[in-house]
Design goal:
By secondary structure, the protein is α+β, with helices and mostly antiparallel strands. The protein has helices at about 1-35, 40-50, 50-60, 125-140, 145-155, 225-230, 255-260, 265-270, and strands at about 70, 80, 95-100, 105-110, 120-125, 165-170, 175-180, 185-190, 195-200, 205-210, 215-220, 235-240, 245-250, 285-290, 305-310, 315-320, 325-330, 335-340, 345-350, 365-370, 375-380, 390-395, 400-405, 410-415, 420-425, 435, 440-445, 450. The chain is about 20% helix and about 35% strand.
Amino acid sequence: MNKFIKILRVILVLFFLIWIISWSSIRASKVVEEGDSGLYNKLIVELYNTPYEIRKWFRSKEIVPHNAKKIEGIDSLREIGKANDLKYIGDSIFLLHTSFVNNSTSEILLQNIKTGEVTRKWTIPLDRVLADLDTVRSNFVKSNLNEKLSEEMEKSIPKKAEEIIIRHQMMLEDGSVIFKVASYGFIYKMNKNSKILWRSKKITHHSLELDDNGNIWACSIDLNNDTANSIGYKDDAVLCLDQEGNELYHKSLTDIYLENNLFESTVESTPVGYNWNNKYKDPFHLNDVEPIMNDGTYWKKGDVFLSMRNKSLVALFRPETDKIIMQRQGPWLNQHDIDIENDSIISIFNNNLSFLDDKVKNGNNIALFNFKTNQTNFVLNNMSNTKWQGRVSKLSSKDIFVEDTDTGIYYLYDSIRTLRYKFYVPYRPEPKYAQYPGWSRLYLKKGGKFLEE
């Protein structure tokens, strides 16, 4: 009997100890997130994370295929940094991309596309990200979302670490990086030593961009919009955060279109649109929020361009007044990635995907829309063949860099639009597979600094 009582006492002591550590760690984590870096709070958080770190070490020994795409049999395609005929490419162009390492780790790499040299590296704890994705699911359940819609949207959230895709990472001058998770997840900021500094409170998807004040513009969602939830569709939103992760702006597209008296003519009068993967109502499918840095003839600094894929719609929006200044539907189809060419022309990555037969018409191209003439000119026809994604960057040299996201292939065209280089980032550890791109970025090393192209 005495032995039984002793065992019971030990069990009770352990139970209360675990409960105290758990309660203290939750409290400490919240305090640390709010900026209190006191020693006590840090020690409690580290103590609570000990089992996680042990599990992470064991799991790091495992290698699991991660969104790898076979790349054999494609003419002139080479691994990044391994081409021998790159006289057209400077030595100072770097690709910021993500590489899956194992079940517990992904890395963000800054890699020279000509030499293959990795200049900087950040380590992402996938277990931490996976735990945060459980919070995303919880937010869906707690919201006012239609139950069926919530269930369908949950299917887009990774359930295993090896399914996580890190998307649209960007590097800051102090060596920190900002990244997010696809399809639905949070934004993270990590310092140069791979320490996560903060995580956004709002759920985001698709693109991340900086304005000239260093604020972060992103695609988000509104889980509690009465109009959207009564009809049962996903409501996208425009989100802006400062460098500390504080929310500066958040507004749903439904409210934007209602307040601009465009909801009936733009949203209700056109097909509802469905998510390409899970088939739930997705009338907007916002995939790019592009901040405008300088005044132009037809826009002003502080405006943003919005790309709504499921309506083949591009809109010029002014967050300062919540006004839609201009919008145009087509002639692009299922577009992504808006960029500003000059004070009156924007470029658009045209997926050229028909809603009728779900096929890309004669390849992707770049649509150049001229506000002055109200005309669209298409260039680089058949440059790639991605249905659902894709990015384009115009370099300071006037070369054009294309990411064919669906195939994992990158293309570099010179200023006269001749294809000069076609490469892939290898899936580790198998060099015959391409790593699924997460909307990579190009940086130019100039005067000891890395400038985004």
